[in-house]
Amino acid sequence: MTTTDTTDPADTADASRRPTAKRDRVRQHLLDVIENAGPGTGLASERDLAEELGVSRPTIRAAIDELIGSGHLVRQWGRGTFTSPEKVTQELSDGPSAAFAVPPAEGAWTSRVVEFRTAEAGLRAARLLIEPDEPVLRVVRLRLVDDEPMSIERLELPALLVPDLTRDDMEDGNFYRLLRERFEIVVCDAVQTLEPAVANPDQADLLDIPVYAPILQVERTTRDTTGRTVEFAHAVYRGDRYRITSHLRFDTTSG
Question: Fewest beta carbons within 10 Å, which of 28, 227, 234, 237?
Fold first, then answer.
C-alpha cells in the first residue's frame, strides 16, 4: 500500500524557521539588556531567562554563545555570564603629543616588569638602534588597567644611553618623560605600525586570554631630536578590551 505524504512544504519551512526566530528574539532581548547595563554587569541565569522569555534553556544558551563569540558577553566559569568590560580606547591624532601619550582609559595604567636585562643586540635591533657589538637593554613589561592585564610591551633601548635605568623605573610613570628628565633624551617622532594577530601560548598566559585569541600588534621605532633611534618597541594588546579610533578630515575644496 502506497502512502501519500500530505505534509505541506510551507509547514515544514515554518517549523524549521521557528527555532531560529526564537533565538533571534532572545538575542535581541540580550542586546537590549547589554545596551542598558554597564560594563561587567552580571546576566540573569539561563533558567530565569528561559522562564522570562518562554523559551528553552538550549535556545537561551545558543543565543548567549553567539554573543560571547561576538564579544558582547563574557563567561566566567563558576561565576556566570557578564556584559563585556569597557574597552580601552586610544585615539589616533596628528597632534604633537599623540604618539607619546599613555592611551586614555577609565582606570589607572600600571606596569609589572617581566624581564629586564642587558644583552647583545640582535640583527634587527642592531640595524635599527646601534652597532652589532654594542649592548641593548631589553625590557618586557605587562601593562595593566585596574590590575587587569591589557598589554605586553617589549622595549629595546641602547644601553649606553640609559646607564642608570632600573627595573623599578619601568614599573610606573611616563617612560618618555623619564628619558627627558633624567637622560636628556627628548623623543621627537616615531614610525608605528599596527596589525591584527593571534595570541601565542606565552602571550595568552600573561594576558589571561585563550591561545589564538585576537590581539592587536603594534611596532614602533622612536627617534629623538638629534635623529638618533632611541627605542624599538613591540607591543600586543587584548583584542577584546582595546580599540583604536581616528578622526578623518576630508578635503571639501576638491571636486
Answer: 227
